[in-house]
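In response to reviewer comment 3 from the previous cycle, which asked for concrete evidence that the modeling workflow produces usable outputs, we include below a single protein chain processed end to end. The sequence was submitted unchanged, and the resulting structure tokens are shown without manual editing.
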Amino acid sequence: MELRTLRYFVAVAEELHFGRAAARLHMSQPPLSRAIRRLEAELAATLFDRGPAGVTLTAAGAVLLDEARAFLDRAEQTRASVAAAAGDSVVTVGILGDSTDPRALRLADAYRRRHPRVEVRVRETGLTDPTCGLHAGLVDVALTRGPFDETGLTVHELRADPVGALLRSDDPLARSGSLKPADLADRRWFLFPPGTDPAWQSYWSGGEPREGPTVRTVQECRQAVLWNGTVGMTLLDHEPAEGLTVVPLTGMPPSRAVVAVREGDIALPLIRSFVRTAIAVYRQ
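The workflow returned the following structure tokens.
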């Protein structure tokens, strides 16, 4: 059994759908189906029960899933350990500023356990560059949020978080049960500087052109609302500073937390291990 085939199997077993698994693996469905059929023939076992709505694991498939995950994890650690011993033992991680995500703390613990001899350098960035320096070559991997220009990057979604409107606590709308972007159409919003990724700017402006003060950091966003009564978007579960409140914002897609790397770098053992560790931690 090849590692690649086991990765194919794990993707299908986790997605329980050949189409979704193929999309996740960045390949077409027919070769994926053929690879799984060859694996079943090699093992002389049916791994999936196939139906119109998707697939389910057989008892044999469930056993292989546990074994394959453990085997792939060990192979990944072996590659990374060899890379570290060869001297490639530094990974630079870009993190969007003011991140207090507890999952990021768990990721740090998990990655350190896997690679105790690897030095992780952290570059915290403001809100003007959602790739955290990835496009500029300043970091190896980014823990950030979409949307942004993904050209030349490999991006994996970790989770999706609902958003809310950030308002002063004494704002007339602060007691609303929920708001829509249209409810804030006549308000001034905080904005990012000219030259900021257009998709990023548009999302955090509620999908419409806005006017308002320019901000570069999370703290400047809060201060713009506090001092000027402007409005903006933030994560719904973020604890607002004193004098501010967050009201659920409907009609907006959730904010995607992602891990991103340059396309060519995903083959590097330490970076690939970081991405896989991040996905595993955020799915717990």
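Helices lie at 3-15, 18-24, 29-43, 59-85, 102-114, 198-204, 218-228, 269-282. We consider this sufficient to address the reviewer's concern, and the full set will be provided in the supplementary archive.
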